[in-house]
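Sanity check

After download, print the first record. It should look like this:
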Amino acid sequence: MDWNHYRFHTVWALPVPPRRAYAVLERAEEYPLWWPQVRAVERVDDITAVITIRSLLPYDMAFTARETRRDPGAGVLEIAMSGDMEGWARWTLTGTAHGCRARYDQEVEVNKPLLRRLAVPGRPFFRANHRFMMRSGRQGLAAYLEAV
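Expected structure tokens:
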């Protein structure tokens, strides 16, 4: 097993149509407005940004996100990631009777030296840290969608 390889899958139920959630999720530079763990998003160009995140554990993660797919019709946003994490992440939005389902999939290899050294004993904490970040993101997005 590669202790520095992670696969994450999260589903958020949101009380808005998919196109409305998509319109917010495609504006990564606004994530810090509603997602507390997304500390900074610095645009490099139209499809690339440097993103800094920090959840409960006392370390920042910075990575370059490059858009690889933007398909509003299919409800898909996908990025390639490099830096402290190498891999990809994808949002897929589908309609439901009460709004939409936002599915987040991510597959990454951790490159940050400290996290690599702590891979085996830290893995459960790193996964819990990610779960907290995703739960907080869902709450933040739901509140943001309600306010705008």
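If your output differs, re-run the checksum step. Summary of this record's structure: The two ends are 44 Å apart (CA to CA).
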